Amino acid sequence: MTTQLSGQKMFLAGNWVNSDRMIEIRDPQDNSIIDTVPAASAEDMMKCIEEAKEGAKIAASMPVHERMRIVNTAANYIEQHAEKYARTISREGSKTIREATKEVARCIQTLRISAEEARRIHGETIPFDQMPGSEDRVGYYYRFPIGIIGAITPFNDPLNLVAHKVGPAIASGNAIIVKPATVTPLSALLLAEAFAQAGLPPKVLSVITGYGSEIGDTLVTHPAVRMISFTGGLDAGEEITRKAGLKKISMELGSNSPVIVLEDADLQEAVESSVSGAFWAAGQNCLGVQRIYIQESIFHEFQTRFVERTNQYCVGDKQSERTDMGPLINEKEAIRVEGLVNEAIGKGAVLLTGGERNGAFYSPTVLTNVPENCTVAKDEIFGPVVLLFSVSDLDTAIEKANDVDYGLQAGVFTNDVRKAYKAIAKMDVGGIMINDSSDYRIDAMPFGGTKKSGLGREGIKFAIEEMTEQKVVCFKLSI
């Protein structure tokens, strides 16, 4: 496919602006240049923050019905241009056109839920007369926006994960500055286009493209930025936490998601769900299935079916409706995944299928007999690799599932409600999907994890709670 490079501009405080330096955006499928975006400087980010100070005042003064109108209109704009948005997601990132189309639909839903939640930012009355001597006092609390939010987003969901930060921020009356992933900024710029078309006042939203090493610290450390909402890797998250200072921090840092399959489960359902969960978006998914613990009585049958289904996965051209899986985000990432698999095999793991790399493509890969000291057993792979383990019972599966530093989501397949509830009580994760893989989420639910999987919760209502503060009001009356 030949693309006429248009040379995109970044969205700085409501204005489309350029830069002296540009960044090439490449399609990971063939490494072709599909467009360019500005490489913002620290000075650009400083200017953006100064403008956002005024934007925060404008946003806070917008009535709720106006916030709702703007967010809903942005959603309508995306819906009217859904094919353009899906093609952009698929071209700049790893997703197939079918996966990208689903992401656009989710983005629209994320924004519409944000608009609805704007009307539900409630407070409560407080019975001050519960304390002796306060009989003449009445009052309440309400929630108010915190001001400027800095959002740093990853490449794997370049539209909907941005919407998960922008939608709640605007719905709750804040200004927001988005630093999208350097390799996939085009979808975030399209989201800014939707809000500009919807009539969002200038200075409320900025999408600043550039290298994190050059503009990230300015955004993270500036005292006027009152919250950092980050989705990405653990190392980057820990560095942001050290630098941010005294401000709110929301972190979604990934996982090493387990699935447990017990002998009373619907085996076909478990296979289908887990294969999809392992290889969606080429495994570059924080909820992706990485470890599967199968009860030993059904292990062989599950393994056979799982490998057969994996081998049916169609890997190839992202733009084809027939394709199930495209490339990783770049060849460097595919080489990294290849190295992790080779390390495991070198330590005794058995390769059941896959393990082949072609440029940025890495075939869906299934390993078994993986030693516990392998990197793939402990850390996040973020690639199309899944590990199968045989376990004697549920207690053993739970113990092994918990034995990592992450705890985002898990899946449990069983038709025994008692076993399901035992897993719910004992598994150290932020979400448990019963008779689904770990890779299930709706945009309205609280989303986040335990341990090194992050801090706080996303999901529109819960993000709004993070993006607002409570103010107590008390009247002393003389009646």
Which key terms come to mind for this protein?
alpha/beta; seven-stranded mixed beta sheet; six-stranded mixed beta sheet; 15 helices; 39% helix; 23% strand; Aldehyde_DH_dom; Ald_DH_N; Ald_DH/histidinol_DH; EC 1.2.1.97
Describe the protein's architecture and organization.
InterPro entries: Ald_DH/histidinol_DH, Ald_DH_C, Ald_DH_N, Aldehyde_DH_dom, ALDH-related_metabolic_enz. The chain has 479 residues and is α/β, with parallel strands linked by helices. The protein has two domains: 10-253 and 454-472, Aldehyde Dehydrogenase, Chain A, domain 1 (3-Layer(aba) Sandwich); 257-442, Aldehyde Dehydrogenase, Chain A, domain 2 (3-Layer(aba) Sandwich), CATH 3.40.309.10. Helices cover 39% and strands 23% of the residues. It is built from 15 helices and 24 strands. The strands form seven sheets. Strands 14-17-18-13-12-20-21 form a seven-stranded mixed β-sheet, sandwiched between helices. Strands 9-8-7-10-11-23 form a six-stranded mixed β-sheet, with helices on both faces. It has a three-stranded antiparallel β-sheet with strand order 5-6-24. Strand 17, helix 12 (375-378) and strand 18 form a beta-alpha-beta unit. Helix 9 packs across helix 10.
Major sheet: order of its strands?
A: 14-17-18-13-12-20-21
| CATH homologous superfamily label of the largest domain | Aldehyde Dehydrogenase, Chain A, domain 1
From the N-terminal CA to the C-terminal CA, the straight-line distance is 77 Å
Q: Per CATH, what is the topology of the largest domain?
A: Aldehyde Dehydrogenase, Chain A, domain 1
Return residue spans where pLDDT drops below 50 for at least 5 consecutive residues: none
Helix content: 25-40%
**Biggest β-sheet: count, sense, barrel?**
7 strands, mixed
**Nearest-integer average pLDDT:** 96
The general outline is: globular
Overall radius of gyration: 24 Å
- Proper CATH architecture of the largest domain: 3-Layer(aba) Sandwich
Extended strand count: 24
Derived from helix and strand composition plus strand pairing, the structural class reads: alpha/beta
The helix tally amounts to 15
Instruction: Give the strand content.
Output: 15-25%
Q: How many domains in all?
A: 2
CATH class of the largest domain: Alpha Beta
Organism: Metabacillus sediminilitoris
Pfam family, one: Aldedh
Enzyme class: oxidoreductase
InterPro entries: Ald_DH/histidinol_DH, Ald_DH_C, Ald_DH_N, Aldehyde_DH_dom, ALDH-related_metabolic_enz
